[in-house]
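Study both lines:
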Amino acid sequence: MDDQLLIQRARNGDEGAYRALYDAHVDRIFRLTYRMAGDEQQAREYTQDTFVRAFQRLDDFRGDARFSTWLHSIAVSVTINGARKVKRLDARHTELDPHGHGTSARVGDPGLRERLRRAIDGLPEIYRTVFLMHDLEGYPHQDIADALGIALGTSKARLSRARAALRGLLGDAAKEYVT
């Protein structure tokens, strides 16, 4: 069923329409929040918060962009704000070893996948978001630009910078993937 029809039905109080909108978009929203948060439990919370916020503000949806684009912009905002909160809380709860040093013991490099995950996590937020949405989730640049409230060219430039940063962070391991 068409999102516009479901939105109208939901605005009129049809609980089934809310459920249909949720079912149609939940998988993609979860994948996005999971890739951004890197933690399944946090991603589930952010996904739930996204739909709660979207449904509370459904009357604010004007239809200028697709519903999925509007929903994804909410998910990005919820996830970024949630990650900031988690980071602040984690900073307060740093565990110390008996010698007074942080527990960030160096772990051997388990492989390229882990290196890539860390490299992506290390990207500045504005580049990581565009990279995740475009290269991992397959969103076109126009949808990314609409969701993030940026110009189309800005989305493309941020993706280019994200890829360049990843090549720099991954060094020789990136050569086999870069043409």
About this structure: Residues 92-109 have pLDDT under 50 and may be disordered. The CA atoms of residues 62 and 160 lie 31 Å apart. The first helix runs from residue 3 to 11. The chain is about 70% helix and 0% strand.
